[in-house]
Amino acid sequence: MKKLKHIAAIVFFLCTYFYAGAMEKEEEVRLNGEQTLLIDLTNLNQGTVILFEDQFGVTLYKDDLVTGGKYNKRLDLEMVPPGTYFLKVDKRFATKTWKIKKSVEGVKILGSSFTIDKPHFRIQEEILNVYVANPEKQPIDIIVEDDYGVVLTSIKASAKNFEKSLDFSRVPSGEYFVKLHKGKEEFIEKVVIN
User: Fold this and answer.
1) How far apart are CA 87 and CA 27, in angstroms?
2) Which of 82, 128, 133, 138 could form a disulfide with 166 if both were Cys (CB 3.0 to 4.6 A apart)?
3) Mean pLDDT, consecutive 10-residue segments, the chain of 194 residues?
4) Is 41 exposed, middle or buried (0-12, 13-18, 19+ CB in 10 A)?
5) Pick from 131, 116, 138: which is nearest to 182 by CA?
6) Residue 7: other Cβ atoms inside 10 A
7) H/E element, 34
8) Which keywords describe this protein according to UniProt (predicted)?
9) Under a CB-based contact definition with an 8 Å cutoff, are residues 150 and 184 in contact?
10) Chain centroid to CA 175: how far?
11) How far apart are CA 137 and CA 158, in angstroms?
């Protein structure tokens, strides 16, 4: 039974990973003129968030998709001061980002987009399963803390595909925080044990 659960977890992980990768091919961000950014996205899931942020992480534009499907938007950047900006498409399993530079000459999309795979947290009873796609084999650090900030355990890894089950069946009732660091990114999952 344990082996069957393990196989099912791997199949779930691979299906979501390849599904997220297939979705990326249908996204396009381009310029229309010198000051307008055209965003054409398809096959988006409900809950996807579109963000336009400055270099300090301040959100200048945010759109939460209540329904899935297509998304088309024109962002006029004429009133935005010169600087570096980021357009982010934040999905459930990954965030795709375009780096945009505005100068006195106009707006440019710098290089191609990059994708940050987000971890998958799935709790079944008192077991938290953590899955992380890590194609660059970046260092992964997982820290489990209680609601007072006391570290209960820490795990280090750098596998291409990381999978770990965390057993909360022997801890007292309360709130716990699983902090996962992958490269410069941090993801936090709250676990409530009754």
Assistant:
1) 12
2) 128
3) 52 49 61 88 89 94 88 92 95 90 91 89 93 90 95 93 93 95 91 92
4) buried
5) 138
6) 10
7) none
8) Signal
9) no
10) 23
11) 5
